[in-house]
């Protein structure tokens, strides 16, 4: 009641107060909206919008200066695709209010220091680029920007810093020059020449052994896959040769030149790059992905050459758009297609190349793989007359170059392609790929087609795949995913354990208890045991065979039935797989029964790891065992292995987080006690601390145990890789044949894949790996992979 009267009152008391507190918030929200939306589609020109916004912000500066500063610093960091729009806005504000310009520059430098401290190197890069563009807007004096660049480049003289640190500072300078190179060269040509010479000298002496590990294709033709700094330096050198001319950056400040040139400029405060620290995580080096050149886009505008700075600018802007909008595929697709200056370039080719460049980026794409699939589908919907043709052309090019394509990228390619086909009724001109039918099945092309059809079947069903593919492709069509039950009928009655399968089957139907089932299994003879051996508890593979084959056969109807069966008889399975041999054998049985259904194998093993029927090391040992030699290069096998490693890593992270939380809780209790100074509370706190300290001790032990298990898993994986590859190399050398077979390429690149996909975890165990496995005596082909990996964070 009082609430209603309170809202109905018009006596000027309370409602006034409420309006006063909400008014500033409304104005702040309005300012944020105006700043964030400037440069978007509008009936007015960008220049008039900027002038109008500068007037609004100038009027609000007395009351909302801090808010305006904060918003402008944030958009400079987070919306790099509108860099020149915001630098022009800051230029106009600086021309009207010199003090505000000075405060903005100081805020940007503070923010730059903060981002470097927090390892936010991408954001720091955008801030450096923004500061450099402020030189064009007459906010920052060119000499002070050059001085900052000189300090950046001085990092290459450091003796103890890692190469990736020097790389970042060099890249920060080079990648700003397309925006500001002309202005700086006009004002400070001698100093700029010296900076570029220092960079050239550094690029000549830096190590590049990591490059092969990051290349999508090993072949240099038709398009070289260049190291990113080498490529950018070549682009900057060409731009310098062309007198710093560039035609693709939107430069709204040119329209305001008469106003901006009258403004007073600010000097940047001296900026020294923070010293290297052990916990600094610098960006990894990259290789520039190239798929198209001007000959691939025959109609319409010409595609800029790979060493023209326009190519760099266009690609950077498209990457920015994806980075800003990747969560909203429709917005992202619309923004990409409305790229400014799209009529001057073959935009569809650039978009497709940039998207695949991100998808194939090693070690990991910037965003989840499925995002790129949905984005390409959205682009095809928005441009049905042109983009699908470019995408088909790209797919064809990648297919023809499969022989030299990195295995990790082939995985991503087949995942994307099968998902894409499932959204377009699996329509594809399969006859164009009939060349794969005359090749050995272990060659990349037939292997790729087979894996695509296998993956497509997961997104459809077997008969559909049979219907869509031409009859002559029958050798590559996946087998019907049916269960193989070796105790199926009376013809199997001669198999050992056959009578027990009938008893087990009846017991499951009659809902017998776990104990009753274990009693039935006691009658199963042990093929590993001699007649006079009394050790009844030794590992019995036949027990696992009989029980698991029968159980999975009865639950073969669906994933859910199989999961329920594993859950119901979890206790029996745990007892049967008590030993390491038991864990290995249960995996063999799952493979034998479901070898026509790789997806079922994957999900059952996933479930058995989660329910601790098998452990991660057992899965790794099974994958590298002779039983799996036939399927060793199949996609699903590596899907299982990576999933297993990820589970192990997540398990360790989870316990570490629990330990950190418990320590923080204890820390808070101690600080609360210190603050209160109450003796009575001291006694109570001691009682409180007891259980918490015990919990921390228990968690500490769990973390150590989990880390030991994790280290053991990687040791198992790498040891098996080394054994298999060494055997292959020795066999080839003895037989006088070429070692570089499709199997070898797949295996060595799978080793690279393990290093790349789990690099953050593996780095913790580098000393152990170097001492035990990757020693100097190892064959140089295998050791090279390890050295390439080490070079990624050098």
Automatic annotation (TrEMBL):
<dbReference type="InterPro" id="IPR003890">
    <property type="entry name" value="MIF4G-like_typ-3"/>
</dbReference>
<keyword id="KW-0506">mRNA capping</keyword>
<dbReference type="InterPro" id="IPR015172">
    <property type="entry name" value="MIF4G-like_typ-1"/>
</dbReference>
<keyword id="KW-0539">Nucleus</keyword>
<dbReference type="Pfam" id="PF09090">
    <property type="entry name" value="MIF4G_like_2"/>
</dbReference>
<keyword id="KW-0508">mRNA splicing</keyword>
<feature type="compositionally biased region" description="Acidic residues">
    <location>
        <begin position="677"/>
        <end position="693"/>
    </location>
</feature>
<comment type="similarity">
    <text>Belongs to the NCBP1 family.</text>
</comment>
<dbReference type="InterPro" id="IPR027159">
    <property type="entry name" value="CBP80"/>
</dbReference>
<dbReference type="Pfam" id="PF02854">
    <property type="entry name" value="MIF4G"/>
</dbReference>
<dbReference type="InterPro" id="IPR015174">
    <property type="entry name" value="MIF4G-like_typ-2"/>
</dbReference>
<feature type="region of interest" description="Disordered">
    <location>
        <begin position="1"/>
        <end position="24"/>
    </location>
</feature>
<protein>
    <submittedName>
        <fullName>Nuclear cap-binding protein subunit 1-like</fullName>
    </submittedName>
</protein>
<keyword id="KW-0507">mRNA processing</keyword>
<feature type="domain" description="MIF4G">
    <location>
        <begin position="28"/>
        <end position="240"/>
    </location>
</feature>
<feature type="region of interest" description="Disordered">
    <location>
        <begin position="664"/>
        <end position="693"/>
    </location>
</feature>
<dbReference type="Pfam" id="PF09088">
    <property type="entry name" value="MIF4G_like"/>
</dbReference>
<dbReference type="InterPro" id="IPR016024">
    <property type="entry name" value="ARM-type_fold"/>
</dbReference>
């Amino acid at each position: 009641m009082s609430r209603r009267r309170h809202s109905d009152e018009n006596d000027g008391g309370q409602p006034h107060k409420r309006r006063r507190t909400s008014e500033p918030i409304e104005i702040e929200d309005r300012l944020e909206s105006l700043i964030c939306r400037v440069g978007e589609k509008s009936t007015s020109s960008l220049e008039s919008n900027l002038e109008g916004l500068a007037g609004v912000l100038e009027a609000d500066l007395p009351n909302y200066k801090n808010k305006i500063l904060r918003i402008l610093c944030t958009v400079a960091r987070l919306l790099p695709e509108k860099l020149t729009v915001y630098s022009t806005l800051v230029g106009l504000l600086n021309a009207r209010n010199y003090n505000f310009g000075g405060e903005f520059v100081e805020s940007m430098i503070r923010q730059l220091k903060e981002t470097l401290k927090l390892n936010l190197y991408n954001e720091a890069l955008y801030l450096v680029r923004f500061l450099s563009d402020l030189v064009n807007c007459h906010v920052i004096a060119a000499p002070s920007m050059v001085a900052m660049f000189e300090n950046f480049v001085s990092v290459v003289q450091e003796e103890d810093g890692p190469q990736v640190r020097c790389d970042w500072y060099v890249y920060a300078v080079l990648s700003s020059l397309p925006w500001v190179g002309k202005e700086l060269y006009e004002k400070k040509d001698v100093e700029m020449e010296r900076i570029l010479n220092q960079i050239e000298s550094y690029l000549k002496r830096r190590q590049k052994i990591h490059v092969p590990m990051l290349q999508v294709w090993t072949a240099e033709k038709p398009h070289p896959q260049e190291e990113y700094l080498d490529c950018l330096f070549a682009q900057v050198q060409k731009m310098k040769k062309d007198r710093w001319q560039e035609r693709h950056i939107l430069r709204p400040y040119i329209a305001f030149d008469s106003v901006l040139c009258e403004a007073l400029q600010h000097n940047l405060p001296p900026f020294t790059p923070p010293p290297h620290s052990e916990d600094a995580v610098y960006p990894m080096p990259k290789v520039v992905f190239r798929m198209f050149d001007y000959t691939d886009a025959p109609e319409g505008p010409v595609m800029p050459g790979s060493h023209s700075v326009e190519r760099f600018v266009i690609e950077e802007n498209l990457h920015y758009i994806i980075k800003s909008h990747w969560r909203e595929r429709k917005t992202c697709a619309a923004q990409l297609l409305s790229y400014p200056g799209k009529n001057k370039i073959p935009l569809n080719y650039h978009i497709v190349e940039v998207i695949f460049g991100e998808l194939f980026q090693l070690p990991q794409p910037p965003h989840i793989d499925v995002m790129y699939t949905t984005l390409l589908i959205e682009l095809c919907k928005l441009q049905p007359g042109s983009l699908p043709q470019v995408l088909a052309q790209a797919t064809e090019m990648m297919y023809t170059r499969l022989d030299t394509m990195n295995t990790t990228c082939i995985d991503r390619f087949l995942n994307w392609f099968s998902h894409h086909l499932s959204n377009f009724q699996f329509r594809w001109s399969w006859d164009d790929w009939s060349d794969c039918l005359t090749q050995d099945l272990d060659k990349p092309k037939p292997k790729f087609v087979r894996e695509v059809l296998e993956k497509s079947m997961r997104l459809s069903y077997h008969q559909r795949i049979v219907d869509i593919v031409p009859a002559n492709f029958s050798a590559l069509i996946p087998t019907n995913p049916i269960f193989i039950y070796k105790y199926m009928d009376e013809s199997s009655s001669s198999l050992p354990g056959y009578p027990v399968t009938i008893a087990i089957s009846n017991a499951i139907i009659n809902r017998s208890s776990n104990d009753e089932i274990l009693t039935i299994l006691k009658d199963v003879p042990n093929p590993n045991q001699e007649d006079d051996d009394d050790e009844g508890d030794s590992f019995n593979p036949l027990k696992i065979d009989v029980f698991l084959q029968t159980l999975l056969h009865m639950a073969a109807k669906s994933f859910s039935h199989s999961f329920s069966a594993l859950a119901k008889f979890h206790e029996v399975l745990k007892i049967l797989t008590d030993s390491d041999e038991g864990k290995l054998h249960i995996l063999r049985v799952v493979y034998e029964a479901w070898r026509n259904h790789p997806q079922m194998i994957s999900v059952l093993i996933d479930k058995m790891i989660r329910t601790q029927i098998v452990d991660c090391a057992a899965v790794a040992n099974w994958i590298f065992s002779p039983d799996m030699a036939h399927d060793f290069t199949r996609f699903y096998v590596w899907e299982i292995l990576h999933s297993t490693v990820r589970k192990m890593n997540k398990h360790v992270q989870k316990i570490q987080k629990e330990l950190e939380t418990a320590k923080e809780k204890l820390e808070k209790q101690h600080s609360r006690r210190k603050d209160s100074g109450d003796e009575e509370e001291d006694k109570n706190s001691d009682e409180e601390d007891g259980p918490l300290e015990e919990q921390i001790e228990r968690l500490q032990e769990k973390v150590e145990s989990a880390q030991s298990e994790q280290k053991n898993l990687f040791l198992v994986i790498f040891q098996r890789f080394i054994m298999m590859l060494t055997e292959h190399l020795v066999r080839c050398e003895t037989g006088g044949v070429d070692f570089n077979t499709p199997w070898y390429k797949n295996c060595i690149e799978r080793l690279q894949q393990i290093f790349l996909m789990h690099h953050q975890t593996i780095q913790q165990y580098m000393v152990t790996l170097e001492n035990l496995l990757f020693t100097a005596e190892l064959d140089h082909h295998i050791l090279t992979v390890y050295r390439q990996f080490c070079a990624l964070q050098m």
